[in-house]
Amino acid sequence: MKKLAAGNWKMNGLAAHLSEAEALAGAHAQPGCEVLICPPATLIARMAQTLGDAPIALGGQDCHSADSGAHTGDVSAVMLKDAGASYVILGHSERRTDHKETDAAVRVKTEAAWRSNLTAIVCIGETLAEREDGKTLDVVGTQMKGALPDGCTAENVVVAYEPVWAIGTGKVPTMEQIAEVHDFMRTELTARFGDAAAGIRLLYGGSVKPDNADEIFAVSNVDGALVGGASLKADDFGGIIGAL
Ligand code: PEP
After folding, report:
1. Catalytic center at which residues (predicted)?
2. Which pTM value belongs to this model?
């Protein structure tokens, strides 16, 4: 299984920041893992042009469940693919909060991603209140059941565990807490998808930085990271890539 370092630029990035992607490509001409940048949709096509043959994949941060139509302001999986994307992040906690996205909505978006041959990175994770109530595994299990369609394989899906309270806060679960959730996710995926589950990559996301990447990547069933803030600068993201 090739591990994955995925950068989520969120609503950050102008043409001037394409140089960060270029610098990353220069510094990691032969990365030991798969490298992915998910810039804002406005930059995907230009970043694809800038990167040329560099071994960096591109992805969107959301897609609509329909392929085209009267949905002002939305972007479809077909469009992401056309712009040069091969991945799309779905169900990020910021989408769930800002746009009231449910697991059922994430599921139909995942199916839309598959129609366009995009690999879906489906995000799940508990809030602080849910963790303090001892509900973490219940929440993660329910989100996986609801958001993942039948037919998940190593090629068409990646699951990202992102505790909501760890995103952008500098707070990171203990390595035991990460292991508990990732082992549980693998068990649940195996129960539902059988042999195909062994190759599905499980990313940890939430305040991953160059200085904590080593210990996070050593945790069982952690197959890479979904990185927000630290993916914006080539030096920081490069440090994380180097740890994989
Ligand atoms: C994210 O947005 O997916 C994320 C993990 O953010 P950060 O790395 O900044 O916590």
Report:
1. 92, 162
2. 0.98
